[in-house]
Amino acid sequence: MTFLSTISNSKSDIIDQxxxxxxYRYNERLKGKSANEEPLNYGSYIHKIFEDGVNYTKVxxxxxxxxxLMEEYHVTPKRKKDTDKCINNxxxxxxxxxGETVSCELHSKIELAEGMQYEFVIDRIxxxxxxxxxxxxxxxxKREKTKVELFNDNQLRGYAYAVNKLxxxxxxxxxxxxxxxxxxxxxxxxxxxxxIFEWKKxxxxxxxxxxxxxxxxxxxMENEFCNWCEYKNGYCPKFxxxxxxxxxxxxxxxxxx
Length: 257
What we know:
By secondary structure, the chain is an alpha/beta fold. The chain is 45% helix and 18% strand. It folds into three domains: 17-34 and 220-256, no CATH class; 36-96, no CATH class; 98-210, no CATH class.
């Protein structure tokens, strides 16, 4: 049995995607063999520019900051055009925002139920002049989600729950959004209390599900997420023979000693 006390958006998604992946990452603490990390590194790089440069008003200052961070995040020169576009759009986006940024990269936990917590990282929270709150999640993807997709977005619903608890603000005054710096587009949505409570119930049920599971029940689940999984090559019995799987797991465990 696995005692799970904290659930995050990542844990919640992985429970739905593949139980073996959850077991490898959170029970066995295996790193696997990472797929292409470049998009993830670039996303982290842009997030860091926006976090540290949230109050900048001059484009040259943001470019100076981005140049300082390039090596740290292993950003390749081919990304310069996208970076310049993100920076220019971000400045325009910021200049049109009304209100006060009360938090950037807020990493915290709040209670879901007794003995259970929801852990989250919110890119940016803005308090409007009339007391409403805007939650912004930066997305460097070229594919934008629609409003319909955001209505079913578990991550944003979790963020709305967190802001409701942290700032004692009703759900009707909380706007959640994806901001796409490549297009300077902000896609917004608001959730009803019933939508948030439904999300909360599902998270609690997932925690109980994991708590009740035996080790043998963490089985691989083949689906569209496999090609991006760090355990596909070498670790997953769906794609590798038993000898290879055992060798990869033992090799990583030995390397940690």
